[in-house]
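Sync notes, pocket subgroup
Present: LS, DG
LS reminded everyone that the earlier model was apo-only. Rerun requested with copper (II) ion included. Inputs:
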Amino acid sequence: MKCVTRSIVLALFSSSLMAGGTDDHSHGNMKFSVGEPGKGIPDRSISVSMRDTMRFVFEPALGELRHGETIGFEVRNDGQIQHEFSIGNAEDQVKHALMMKKMPDMKHNDPNTVSLTPGESATLSWKFMGKETVVFACNIPGHFEAGMKNVLAIKE
Ligand SMILES: [Cu+2]
């Protein structure tokens, strides 16, 4: 199992090297799996409190995600430790978590992820599209496993 994990990480690492350039991990031409970065005024806004209880608290509740809708997430770290709010499919989050384990100090500037220190806040706007199940995750090592995730389908 350990060997499998390692080879996946190496494969990811070498593919990003092959992509070339000075990679600050911002993925200029990244293809997203469950939509794309939101533009303009979001259809609705939801505040997301990140807690040391390893939970995201959505206010108001997320409810259903609709194909084509843009949500503005006002993300705030209400804990005492670093947390992250990342939007993707299950595969994205597994890959991301493996990289975080390998390189825990990596800073993420991806349009689908915000990484916040205690007390910090940021806005992440996302347009949800497609049929894949959305996984909201904190990929700080150990947090996802401890339950810092929400899984939700996109409705037509
Ligand atoms: Cu976390």
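DG: The chain has a mean pLDDT of 84.
LS: Helices lie at 2-18, 90-102.
Action: DG to write up.
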